[in-house]
Amino acid sequence: MTARPAFAAITPNWFAIVMGTSILATGAATLPVSHPILEVVAWTAWALAGVALVAIVAATAGHYATDRGAVRRYLDDPSMAHFYGAPAMALLAFGAATLTVAPPLLGERLAVGLHAALWMLGTALGLATAVGIPVIAFTSHRVEADAASGAWLMPVVPPMVSAATGAMLLPYVDGEIARTLALACYGMFGLSALGALMAIASLWNRLAHHGIGAASAVPTLWIVLGPLGQSVTAVGLLADHAAPALGIDAHALLVFSLLYGVLVMGFAMMWLAISLTVTARTVRTRLPFTLAWWAFTFPVGTCVTGASALARHTGASALTWLAVVLYGLLAVGWAVAATGTLGAYLPRGRRAATAGTDVPVVAEVTARR
Predict the structure, then answer these.
(1) Residue 349 has pLDDT above 80, yes or no
(2) DSSP letter at 208?
(3) Exposure pattern of 302-317 as b/e (b: 16+ CB <10 Å)?
(4) CATH number for the domain that contains residue 29
(5) From CA 226, how far away is CA 228, in angstroms rounded?
């Protein structure tokens, strides 16, 4: 069955909009500084993320209902299949934003309930993609030696987001449920961290031997920041909440979170400098718009929440300033991505939006140089 034009370009990548807008809200609410403007930004971003999530889920359902072969087609596409990690992260990110920002409006009980429901759904979907997408990639996809991309991280990052957002639920459960949840969070931290390490190594090898590649794929370099910053956030939140559930010394978890967090944040800042430099160099020639530009948001936002956790645990002014500066970069990245999206997909940009059902919304990651 042929897809209706209204649903033609709704691919999994669209959920990056929800991810980036949700982390804008969460980052504003968890910064180690406070200001009335940050409260306005947090509430506005949370509301926009909610609207975007409902709209994109509805449009995706309409697309799949009218084009029954869409899922199989996207899974068979090496440049698209990896982005099935985005829906899971969108659910998890909006759930975290809801629990962080919305209790004064919804009440704590409803906010916790919504976060828990989205966490369970997002975690199940994320674990399925973390296993299923690599299996498909290893057994069905045929890619060139220079095809490695930041997009390869998308299926393995959702369990790391589950680890961080699951830690936020620990204060609301106890007994064996709390113990199981804490262990599951650390387990998902491990599987995602090691999976991300292998994907990052493949990307580094490709960059070293084959260069930057197509300009449209440059924003995917920023995706590397996602598992780095999210892992720092995860160990920080687990240090805050997991000790009672596990029956161990909270100081030990705090020490681990600091040792791990500072080391990984250092690498993340190096990668951020590389990504900024390569992106600026590409902009001088031409950086074509795709929804790959949303990679300027969620990955940077995870570094904001990671730096905020480190600042909270150490009291270091340098880390507080780092979190603030990174949030400024996140806000700029969100504005750039949102402006580009509106320009491309509003009626005057309709031609770009309706070019075909397989328009890559994050990047044409396998494009040759």
Answers:
(1) no
(2) H
(3) bbbbbbbbbbbbeeee
(4) 1.50.10.150
(5) 5
